[in-house]
């Protein structure tokens, strides 16, 4: 028996019948179709680089993609806008692994993620050198960068693959085939410090990002123009000839960026922000959707506890952001030591025998280092068309970024700047502030015995002390290929993973048809009989599991955890509140799967999506954004890319005949399992009705 999950045909039939019952209307956002013209190049190429797999984005998903491809003996090119690989745990500063208890207890992760955890433990002698309370593993971002470089080096050596690593590199343009369905080349810009200029990582991202996407040299950067193309190997030509098929791909491109850059640049259909309320996403606070309300982004920074008070200078913009800062609505968190030890990344031994209230970790002492990532602190949460960070397709068009040679990264530079200011202002509030937006006056006291760690040798590796790139919780998300039950495009939805009590008053007050359709969708194996008998919601027994997919290629579990946008602009506005109702789906989630269909975009055939850009609703993304998910989806992307190159097929051909058996898909799933990359959680079949042991909280 092979190691992939068996998908019960009656479950699939029920889902198809449900789609027919809904009139095929399983989504409400029309797909965006456009094939951009070939773009003009402003400068000649300085270097042509060949690879079998181009991984755009060097975060954890990109690293995991490269790791599996290298073990398979592939030649891999990997790019990143920063000079560190690792994303969340390095350049973005969130080096505290978000994990759930049972998965962690079983170490039921992709094998490369387990290897990373082992390397962390070997480096420090323990997984939690910070003695933090948010995680079982808190560590220094700079060290994680070193560990990942070593892990990829060893993978290349073991698998006889080759990694071509391009730090400080952005993709500027894509060359497409005549029909637009294949990426044939990618044009990139790599920047270096100009002669006489300050070193890289001196200025903040908002000060450098626009320069990084321009071909011309500047006072700050000299540029190298790269053209990535498929690796030209005689054996590949012979393989394609032997296969005698026009579908054999020359290479595979993977979007593992933090914001779905290639998704936008290639102009494949995608979603952004809040989904329209539907029976699939019944907790959405908006009927029409809202592309401007994405989860907040954060610029983490590292600060050290000192023995004596340090001089603390208020930044000139502090008064603008002060109304936002606060401990938390939970008064148990209103304590400097609690907040400091929350994501403490370094606490050398011997540690204090006294403990932080409630959480049982050692009290901070001089020399301890904390990484700050706090909702009512350095989270920056814009949510309107005036200040959203990730530009929508319409905004990109208006800005000229979808025109020939116009791509500039797809972010609002001024919002990046304000996020940086908000983070630096939060540091000052932490050490000197006395206000509190959540608990009122009289709670917050100054804490001057701290210093912000700056410098190229600091934990964040920047002169300004902030992370090199913000921690991004939500991306552009593709709309997968149309299916019988999802004619506008496949997507993971809230009810696929949520543990929510859908009999509560909120859901019973939904429009009657929506509530009825919701319960048909929750009926699981009984959906067919429920629809045929037109059962009322109170007559239907809810399935007690997540949706199980026949094309699962990875796993993910974390609570649906929101850092939602604010209702008004600017986010720091006095008295501002979170977008009303946006936390409705906040809560526990079943262990879930990553179906291959969620990684395959429309309109382009040799592009795979990893990281947070997979086809999923905003509520699923709130759970599928953590470290182990990124590694699992990256492992799936790297394995799939190598597999389709060997088989001479395109990724969509692995799933285009579902629900009929797909032998090549099953072979891919078996390869993933054999390589130590789980595609289903233990004992979570459709016939097991007791999943309570998997509650994340």
Write a structural description.
This protein is an alpha/beta fold and about 700 residues long. The chain is built from 19 helices and 19 strands. It has helices at about 10-20, 60-70, 100-105, 110-125, 140-160, 205-210, 235-245, 260-265, 320, 335-340, 395-400, 415-430, 495, 505-510, 510-520, 525-530, 620-625, 625-645, 665-675; strands at about 45-50, 55, 75-80, 160-165, 170-175, 185-195, 220-230, 250-255, 270, 295-300, 300-305, 345, 370, 380, 450, 475-480, 550-555, 590-595, 605-610. The strands form 6 sheets. It has a 5-stranded parallel sheet with strand order 4-3-2-8-19. Strands 1-7-6-5 form a 4-stranded mixed sheet. Helix 2 packs parallel to helix 18 (about 625-645), helix 4 (about 110-125) packs across helix 5 and helix 6 packs antiparallel against helix 12. The longest helix is centred in the last third of the chain and has 21 residues, at about 625-645. The chain is globular and about 70 Å long.
Distinctive features:
single chain; 697 residues; alpha/beta; 5-stranded parallel β-sheet; 4-stranded mixed β-sheet; 19 strands
């Amino acid at each position: 028996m092979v190691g992939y999950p068996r998908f019960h045909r009656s479950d699939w039939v029920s889902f198809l019948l449900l789609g027919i019952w809904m009139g095929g209307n399983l989504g409400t956002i029309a797909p965006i179709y456009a094939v951009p013209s070939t773009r003009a190049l402003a400068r000649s190429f300085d270097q042509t680089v060949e690879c079998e797999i181009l991984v755009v984005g060097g975060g954890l998903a990109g690293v995991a993609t490269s790791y599996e491809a290298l073990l398979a003996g592939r030649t891999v090119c990997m790019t990143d806008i920063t000079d560190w690989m690792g994303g969340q745990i390095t350049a973005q500063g969130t080096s505290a692994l978000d994990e759930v208890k049972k998965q962690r207890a079983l170490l039921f992760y992709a094998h490369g993620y387990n290897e990373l955890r082992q390397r962390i433990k070997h480096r420090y002698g323990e997984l939690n050198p910070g003695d933090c309370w948010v995680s079982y593993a808190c560590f220094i971002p700079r060290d994680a960068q070193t560990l990942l470089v070593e892990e990829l080096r060893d993978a290349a050596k073991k698998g006889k693959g080759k990694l071509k690593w391009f730090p400080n590199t952005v993709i500027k343009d894509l060359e497409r085939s005549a029909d637009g369905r294949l990426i044939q080349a990618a044009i990139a810009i790599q920047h270096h410090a100009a002669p006489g200029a300050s070193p890289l990582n001196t200025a903040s991202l908002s000060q450098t990002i626009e320069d990084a996407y321009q071909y011309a040299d500047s006072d700050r950067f000299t540029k190298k123009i790269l053209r990535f193309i498929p690796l030209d190997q005689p054996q590949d030509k012979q393989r394609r000839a032997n296969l005698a098929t026009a579908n054999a791909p020359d290479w595979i491109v993977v979007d593992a960026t933090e914001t779905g850059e290639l998704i936008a640049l290639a102009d494949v259909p995608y979603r952004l922000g809040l989904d329209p309320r539907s029976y699939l996403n019944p907790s959405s606070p908006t009927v029409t959707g809202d592309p401007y309300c994405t989860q907040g982004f954060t610029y983490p920074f590292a600060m050290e506890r000192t023995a004596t008070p340090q001089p603390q200078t208020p930044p000139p913009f502090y008064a603008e952001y002060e109304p936002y800062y606060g401990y938390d609505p939970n008064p148990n968190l209103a304590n400097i030591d609690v907040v400091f030890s929350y994501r403490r990344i370094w606490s050398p031994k011997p540690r204090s025998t006294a403990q932080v209230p409630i959480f049982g970790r050692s009290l901070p002492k001089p020399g301890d280092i904390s990484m700050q990532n706090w909702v009512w602190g350095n989270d920056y949460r814009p949510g309107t068309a005036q200040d959203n960070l990730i530009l929508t397709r319409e905004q990109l068009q208006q800005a000229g970024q979808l025109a020939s040679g116009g791509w500039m990264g797809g972010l609002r530079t001024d919002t990046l700047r304000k996020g940086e200011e908000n983070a630096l202002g939060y540091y000052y509030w932490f050490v000197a502030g006395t206000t509190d937006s959540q608990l009122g006056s009289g709670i917050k006291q100054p804490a001057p015995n701290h210093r912000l760690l700056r410098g190229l040798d600091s934990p964040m590796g920047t002169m300004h002390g902030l992370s090199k790139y913000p921690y991004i919780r939500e991306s552009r998300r593709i709309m997968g290929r149309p299916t019988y039950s999802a004619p506008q495009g496949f997507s993971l939805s809230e009810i696929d993973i949520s543990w929510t009590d859908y009999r509560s008053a909120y859901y019973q007050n939904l429009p009657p048809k929506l509530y009825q359709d919701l319960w048909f969708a929750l009926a699981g194996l009984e959906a067919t009989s429920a629809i045929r008998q037109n059962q009322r919601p109170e007559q239907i027994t809810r399935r007690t599991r997540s949706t199980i997919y026949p094309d699962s290629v990875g796993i993910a579990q974390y609570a649906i955890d929101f850092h939602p946008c604010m209702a008004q602009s600017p986010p720091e506005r006095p008295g501002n509140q979170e977008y009303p109702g946006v936390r409705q789906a906040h809560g526990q989630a079943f262990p879930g799967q990553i179906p291959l269909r969620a990684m395959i975009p429309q309109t382009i055939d040799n592009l795979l999506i990893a990281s947070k850009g997979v086809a999923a609703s905003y509520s699923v993304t709130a759970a599928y954004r953590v470290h182990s998910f990124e590694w699992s989806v990256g492992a799936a992307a790297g394995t799939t890319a190598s597999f389709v190159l060997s088989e001479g097929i395109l990724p969509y051909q692995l799933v285009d005949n579902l629900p009929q058996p797909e032998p090549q898909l099953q072979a891919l799933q078996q390869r993933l399992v054999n390589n130590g990359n789980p595609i289903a959680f233990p004992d979570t079949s459709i016939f097991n009705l007791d999943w309570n042991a998997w509650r994340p909280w």
